[in-house]
Amino acid sequence: MYDETPAHAADTARAYYDSADVDGFYRSVWGEDIHTGIYEHPDEPVARATRRTDAEVAARVADLLGPGRTVLDLGSGYGGAARHLAATYGCRVVALNISEVQNRRHRELNALQGLDGLIDVVAGSFNEVPAPDGRFDVVWTQEALVHAGDRAHMLAEAVRVLAPGGALVLTDVMAADDTHQEALRPVCERLHVTDLATPDFVRTQLTRLGLERVGFEDLSEHLIPHYARLTAEVRDHGDELTTTDAIGEEYLARLRANLPLWLDACENGLLAWGIFHARR
After folding, report:
1. Of 30, 247, 66, residue with least CA distance to 142
2. Does the model's pTM come out above 0.85?
3. Distances, alpha carbon 27 to alpha carbons 7, 8, 101, 216, 268, in Å
4. Cα 152 to chain center, whole Å?
5. What does the pLDDT read at residue 87?
6. Number of other CB atoms surrounding residue 139 within 10 Å
7. Are strands 136-142 and 162-171 parallel, antiparallel or unpaired?
């Protein structure tokens, strides 16, 4: 498994997401949500599909959302999910994220949408969540586990701050359980990680940590349209991103080389994705 120290992995993730090229890519191509989308048809815009993911994940814990409830969003990115939760359910959200570049945009978008009173954007690492035990009704994390140097520890922190009767929901792009991690090293290079978690690893850890009703809804079929859309956007419109100074030409070349590797891995069944949900 991933053998970086938590501190080094946190520094790597911070440098990655604070990069002007990476920020330009995610803002311009992905939108407000930096996670996999749930697609109704293959040509659907990425931003629409990722917003659907927010709604689908929230539906698994809707009984714990609403005024007076508090959610911790671990690795909140630009805050698309946090805004969905606050606007739809009226719950409070603590959005913990390591990138100040993303956090600034997150706060700006919250203010523009009148949601800054419900969302507290906190700079920090999920290696040491700055909250007491049992603080949150829901712990929510999307496509963040990949950046944890000690993934078992990150999950333990998520469970530690979860209130009795609370729920954890998690999505992450993972290696399929029968995939040899070495086959994914060229794929993972863009994210500056060496391997990915697996569904079996997450399921085992959540059970070991004492959570109940641990479930995984396998939605891996959505990986293919997601990475096909990203690959096509960069292939067909990447030059526009360099002319607007969103990303540099060298980074664009790396994207055009790397994203097809993700698509190939999806088509060959090497990757898995879906919604984990469990109760404390």
Report:
1. 30
2. yes
3. 26, 25, 11, 29, 28
4. 17
5. 98
6. 30
7. parallel
Distances (CA, A) of 278 to 134, 137, 165, 252, 270: 15, 12, 10, 39, 25
pLDDT digits (tens, 9 = 90+) for 167-195: 999 999 999 999 999 999 999 999 999 99
CA dist 114 and 84 (Å) reads 12
What SS3 state is found at 119?
strand
Helices (H), ranges, 90-132: 100-112
Q: In what order do the strands lie in the sheet with 274-279?
A: 119-123, 92-97, 70-74, 136-142, 162-171, 274-279, 212-218
Encoding tokens for residue 111? 């203010």
Model pLDDT for residues 104-155, shown as the tens digit of each residue? 999 999 999 999 999 999 999 998 999 999 999 999 999 999 999 999 999 9
For residue 271, the cross-strand partners are 175
Q: How many CA atoms lie within 13 A of 273 on its CB side?
A: 26
Residue 3 pLDDT class (50, 70, 90 cuts):
low
